[in-house]
């Protein structure tokens, strides 16, 4: 009888100790969750504060820029480009605790700053245009020149259409050497069945309405923007990629921030394997980091679910990726009947 009573008391004490242990663990887990939530909130608040500060600093510098010595302007734009690159890196490293809406909003802010920087540079440092003088045109007198108003010049300039680097080409092989490419903003429009080689390190790359094209590019210091492209193959290294309204494209990419797609379908990604003789040297000159490649971190603005990957893009299987680019280019040219 005494042994039974002792057993009951022992079991009661054991249950009491187990209960206390469970309660202690619950308190610890609760405290951990509270600290984690507090840490995340503090992280988001700190990010927003620093992000806004960096954005305002770049905006103020762009707004305050005035016509000046070319070398001085170039130095200012180089500094701004470096700050924008650092801002992109800071944002990318913070996406781990940001929701999709915040990611989209901040990326749009950075894209707008990049666009504003390019527009300001084009306004203050316009590219020289080459042309032949018409000798038959009579020289304007000093009186005529004096009558010409600044407003009239501005109106005439505003009427000029955007000048694409190249456009409206069919079944051609186009090559752009580093002398024409380095630090320049390249733009291509309405190409079909073309192969485009781009050597050197460009500032930015914009492509629109490309169909059945192969784009083989070196380093792009800032952004690559493409829209309305169909059945194309791209290979390049860049800081960021924005792809809009495109379909059935294979992209071999080295990207130091993130690739963003919107209104796209059947887009496939793989790490960039295309190289040429001075590729690594061009990468260094562009300021890109070969050790950072977020090729598989793709954001889809039409797919906000965090549980499942967007159905609009996929990774190219390893056994289906291009390894012999010379052979692929040769077959591509034959298949699309491109003149060489």
UniProtKB/TrEMBL annotation:
One of its GO terms (molecular function) is tubulin binding. Residues 1-41 are annotated as: Disordered. Keywords: Acetylation, Chaperone, Cytoplasm. Residues 157-303 form the C-CAP/cofactor C-like domain. One of its GO terms (cellular component) is cytoplasm. Its main location: cytoplasm. Residues 12-41 have a biased composition (Basic and acidic residues). Transmembrane segments: none annotated. This is C-CAP/cofactor C-like domain-containing protein. It comes from Polypedilum vanderplanki (Sleeping chironomid midge).
